[in-house]
């Protein structure tokens, strides 16, 4: 079968995200729009992943769990894992390095932890946006060490990207690079490319995706993630964006 | 020293006029917003090339009065809108952060 994967999405835990973008609503919309694999990647936190897991199960979507981490250089990097528990432990590693700025909810929007039925479980008190005390190299190496995929986000954007913060691709191993438009102007040193929605609002879910093959389901819960890993290793994902499309 | 004096002395371009011309306490120069959050002070001016609406969010957080965008960097429309709403001045300079910081230091310290 061919999987259609949208690997970068924010829920109501991200302060810049919509309060109504609960994991259950996101997954429902993604399923309606033809997505078969979806990742939840809130800023510097994986605390909505348990609700996301249940929602994906309900809608028959293969889940991927992770964060969009802000590195010391203020570069946004996706770390993706096969299982909730791995993402939660990764989230702990990130949170321990997150500066302790109090979150001003009135001003910057809510940071809400919910369950699969949109019940509020907690309000995150620490502001989730700042750079953590770890470089892009450390984030990449730690993610890979834990068996995850590490993908610098929107490398072609004018803020919070490898191009805006460094201007070049650092000499570190990445699983892929996320782009928002083609062709890519930066030297990508033959890394595989992905594109994804980076949705903060319901309307943006499933606006970009990649497709790649997976063999018939074996029932192994890690099989879809392994298929993604293999597709990236073999450079086989097809992007939903085409050269010259607007970002 | 207030913003209008800084504008005329440093020949800055002010992109909107929804800001308070209150006294400045100082300035902070950095392009890393987490560093600004940790070290900038109330009523400062921020000197940066980070021309992004998040810079306005950080300015609001620390209580800065305005942002000097260096090197004539273009200011996106959403940054301008956020600045108007939060009463944060956006002042554009043709000079780089070193020159703006040096000149502003002399102005604020009265040399």
Textual characterization of the structure:
The complex is a heterodimer of chains A (247) and B (111). Chain A has 247 residues and is of the alpha/beta class. Chain A has one domain (2-239): TIM Barrel, CATH 3.20.20.140. Chain A has helices at residues 23-32, 49-59, 84-96, 105-108, 136-145, 162-165, 223-233, and strands at residues 2-6, 37-43, 62-70, 76-81, 112-114, 120-123, 149-152, 177-178, 193-194, 210-213, 238-239. In chain A, α1 (23-32) packs parallel to α2 (49-59). Chain A is globular, with a radius of gyration of 16 Å. In chain B, strands 1-5-4-3-2 form a 5-stranded mixed β-sheet, sandwiched between helices. Chain B is globular, with a radius of gyration of 12 Å. Chain B has a single domain (3-108), classed as HprK N-terminal domain-like (Udp-n-acetylmuramoylalanyl-d-glutamate--2,6- Diaminopimelate Ligase, Chain: A, domain 1). In chain B, α2 (33-39) packs parallel to α3 (53-62) and α3 packs parallel to α4. Chain B has 111 residues and is of the alpha/beta class. Classes of the chains: A alpha/beta (247), B alpha/beta (111). Chain A binds chain B through residues 70, 73-74, 99, 101, 104, 107-108, 129-131, 158-160, and chain B through 32-34, 37-38, 50, 52, 54, 57, 60-61.
Summarize the structure.
The complex is a heterodimer of chains A (247) and B (111). Chain A has 247 residues and is an alpha/beta fold.
How far the N terminus sits from the C terminus of chain B, by CA atoms, comes to 13 Å
- Rg over alpha carbons of chain A: 16 Å
Q: Mean pLDDT of chain B, rounded to whole units?
A: 95
The CATH homologous superfamily of chain B corresponds to HprK N-terminal domain-like
Q: What is the CA–CA distance across the termini of chain A?
A: 29 Å
């Amino acid at each position: 079968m061919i999987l259609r994967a949208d690997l970068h999405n924010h829920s109501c835990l991200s302060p810049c995200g919509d309060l109504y973008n609960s994991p259950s609503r996101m997954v429902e919309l993604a399923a309606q729009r033809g997505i078969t694999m979806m990742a939840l990647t809130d800023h510097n936190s994986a605390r909505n992943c348990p609700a996301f897991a249940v929602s994906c199960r309900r809608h028959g979507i293969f889940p991927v769990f992770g964060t969009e981490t802000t590195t010391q250089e203020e570069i946004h990097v996706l770390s993706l894992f096969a299982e909730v528990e791995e993402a939660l432990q990764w989230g702990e590693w990130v949170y321990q390095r997150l500066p302790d700025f109090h979150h001003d909810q009135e001003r910057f929007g809510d940071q809400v932890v919910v369950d699969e039925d949109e019940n509020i479980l907690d309000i995150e008190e620490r502001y989730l946006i700042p750079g953590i005390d770890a470089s892009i190299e450390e984030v990449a190496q730690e993610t890979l060490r834990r068996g995850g995929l590490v993908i610098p986000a929107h490398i072609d954007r004018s803020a919070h990207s490898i191009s805006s913060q460094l201007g070049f691709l650092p000499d570190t191993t990445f699983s892929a690079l996320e782009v928002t438009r083609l062709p890519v102007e930066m030297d990508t040193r033959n890394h595989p490319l992905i594109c994804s929605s980076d949705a903060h609002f319901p309307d943006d879910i499933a606006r970009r995706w990649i497709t790649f093959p997976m063999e018939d389901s074996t029932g192994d819960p890690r099989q879809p993630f392994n298929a993604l890993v293999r597709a990236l290793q073999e450079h086989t994902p097809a992007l939903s964006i085409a050269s010259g499309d607007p970002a | 020293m207030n913003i209008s004096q800084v504008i005329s002395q440093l020949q800055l371009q002010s992109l909107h006029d929804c800001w308070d011309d209150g006294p400045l306490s100082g300035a902070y120069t950095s392009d890393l917003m987490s560093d600004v959050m940790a070290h900038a002070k109330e009523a400062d001016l921020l000197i940066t090339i980070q021309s992004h609406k998040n810079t306005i969010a950080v300015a609001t957080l620390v209580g800065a009065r305005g942002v000097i965008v260096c090197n004539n960097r273009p200011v996106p429309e959403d940054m301008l809108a956020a600045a108007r709403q939060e009463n944060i001045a956006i002042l554009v300079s043709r000079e780089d952060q070193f020159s703006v910081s040096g000149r502003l230091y002399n102005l604020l310290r009265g040399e």
